[in-house]
Amino acid sequence: MSVSQNSLCCCTLLYFIAPFKLDTNLALTFDANTDAICTKAHQRMHFYQTLRSFNVNSCFMRIFYSCFIEFVLTFFFICWFGSLSFKNKKKLENIVRMCSKIAGISLNELSLSYRARATRKAQSMSADCTHPLFAEYKLLPSGRRYALPGCRTNCPKN
Description:
Elements: H1 3-17, H2 31-53, H3 58-74, H4 86-103, H5 110-127
Helix pairs in contact: 2-3, 2-4, 3-4
């Protein structure tokens, strides 16, 4: 193998390895995720506006919203919505507000939907004794709220 072929092989190898390099300064923000979700939702809102221009029934508009736009906004959001910054939550809520104005109907806020889904998930985990997180969910003495799961930190003590 000649020198030029060897360098070409190394460059190709580095080209495929470089995108998978981990960044040591990981910022746990969801800005890129929120922007991608907003872009997808805006693309679907075009069809939503088109339906409105055809004077479609508001019942069908609600079904279209829940199937195409709300699905994009809430896909797996029980994992990341609670960690969003106020700015990113506001972006998502603005999409819901715009859809509400376009259709002329009131739509549920994402924060209410998140709270309902998180509560439902916690109840299903606490009801299933085989779930790995079963022991983490304990009801408070009032029986209406759950206690926060215990967590340990390695904070230096002075």
